Amino acid sequence: MKSKELFERAKKYLVGGVNSPVRYFKPYPFFVERAKDCYLYDVDGNKYIDYCLAYGPMVLGHANEKVIKKVEKQLYLGTAYGCPTEKEIILAEMVVDRVPCAELVRFVNSGTEATMSAIRLARGYTGRKKIIKFDGAYHGAHDYVLVKSGSGALTHGTPNSPGIPEETTKNTILVPFNDEEALEKAIKENRDEIACVIVEPVMGNVGCILPKEGYLKFLREITEENNILLIFDEVITGFRLARGGAQEYFNVVPDLATLGKILGGGFPIGAIVGKREIMEHFSPSGKVYQAGTFNGNPVSVTAGIATLEQLDENFYKKTTKFAEEIANALKELSERYKVEAKIYQIASMFQIYFNKEEVINYDIAKKSDTEKYMKYFHELLKRGIFVPPSQFECCFTSIKHEEVVEETINKLEEVFKALTL
Ligand code: PMP
Questions:
Q1: φ and ψ at residue 106, rounded to 5 degrees
Q2: In CA terms, which of 220, 285, 353, 362 is 20 to 30 Å from 329?
């Protein structure tokens, strides 16, 4: 059991044995040796069909040949310059061409940095302090947004992290997702004090929660009426729901958006994009400070270009079809085996909740049977399928899942049998 040994060794040198809390699950995580297409291969010789896909970026599957070739070439040309490159312009052009709200782009290194800077920009631009975020939304691991946060914060029981002073989060107002009245009330009570509303258009960090029909349009209207900036955190949905992300899919254009994951084609990246008039407030053209040694890193940017180039119509059609087929199978199986569950899917995102109620917000999601989810997870793992080890994450399909959808559905049937034992 090499993974077990590696985990023991890792614990001696790495906090909790892992470098991000979501990677830990009981009794210990498998350690990866390599990955190709839709498969992860661990150090013990096991092969897993991967529906976690590094929490989103690997939409082309692992080790995509075209990305590798371009990145390899770039490696020989240097890996960080501290000076601008043409490739940054090319990727920025591609982003502006695709994402409806994007007129200007600032590249950073992660989704966390992107939301942190987008919020600073909104505050700097409006001269207001308060921000509104939704219960259970995850916008990365920085102080202003780690309040009632999803993802690992929720899975590991720390939606509000110690170490963040009250003073820092007192300007973060929380409202439930999909609730129009709650937001109206919050805005009314804090009139002229709110810089922005930040939202995951599809909540991908408490599972997969879809916006109610018209809800995102409502967000657009109410923010516009109150001179509040609307930020779509599209770190997951960007380039995934459609070429232009959730804003294209739902036809709602925010003022700013944050991007990451897919944009870096498997390498670290993030971006803040938005209307020129607002974005120009970033330094050096404006006064809102934003900087980074690795911003616009040539390797990440090269991988991003090579990835976005491959996301054609066929990609969206197929990845959606794979997720749809699995979601339909989950629905059919949960009915047939009388397992109380709700299943949600949109484009290449899907998740099952072991829950009686329709999951429309964080409070309801939290009522899910997480023990049953972990049983489902381990039963899948035993059969060579890896989904995120938490009820509060989302599953993804890649373009390389074509061959394994049927196998997945067959294994799911075995898992449902095991769940009812
Ligand atoms: N926003 C959203 C919607 C995310 O899903 C994530 C990461 N899961 C982040 C921000 C933070 O991104 P990163 O992990 O790259 O810092």
A1: -125, 120
A2: 362
Ligand 1 proximity of 112 Cβ (cutoff 6 Å): yes
Q: Do residues 170 and 290 share a domain?
A: yes
Mutate to test the pocket of ligand 1, among 116, 261, 295, 395 (most ligand atoms within 8 A of CB): 261
For the Cβ of 138 lying below 6 angstroms from any atom of ligand 1, the answer is: yes
**Which residue among 20, 133, 234, 236 is best mutated to probe the pocket of ligand 1, counting the most ligand atoms within 8 A of its Cβ?**
236
**Could you read off the pLDDT tens digit of each residue along the chain, which spans 421 residues?**
899 999 999 999 999 999 999 999 999 999 999 999 999 999 999 999 999 999 999 999 999 999 999 999 999 999 999 999 999 999 999 999 999 999 999 999 999 999 999 999 999 999 999 999 999 999 999 999 999 998 888 888 777 889 999 899 999 999 999 999 999 999 999 989 999 999 999 999 999 999 999 999 999 999 999 999 999 999 999 999 999 999 999 999 999 999 999 999 999 999 999 999 999 999 999 999 999 999 999 999 999 999 999 999 999 999 999 999 999 999 999 999 999 999 999 999 999 999 999 999 999 999 999 999 999 999 999 999 999 999 999 999 999 999 999 999 999 999 999 999 8
For residues 216 and 201, the answer to whether their CB atoms sit within 8 Å is: yes
Does residue 115's CB lie within 6 angstroms of at least one atom of ligand 1?
yes
- What is the strand order of the sheet 47-50 is part of? 32-36, 39-42, 47-50, 385-386
- Domain containing residue 392: CATH number: 3.90.1150.10
Q: Per the structure, how many domains does the chain have?
A: 2
Q: Residue 251, by phi and psi: left (phi above 0), alpha (psi -120 to 50) or beta? A: left
Domain that holds residue 254: 65-308
Amino acid found at 142: H
The answer to whether residue 138 is catalytic is: yes
Q: Under a CB-based contact definition with an 8 Å cutoff, are residues 247 and 201 in contact?
A: yes
CB-side exposure of 364: number of CA atoms within 13 Å? Answer: 16
Domain boundary pick from 265, 292, 308: 308
Judge whether 39 counts as a catalytic residue.
no
**Alpha carbon of residue 112 to chain centroid:** 11
The Å distance, Cα 7 to ligand 1 centre, comes to: 25
Q: Does 249 participate in catalysis according to the annotation?
A: no
Q: What ipTM does the predicted assembly reach?
A: 0.99
Are 69 and 160 within one domain?
yes
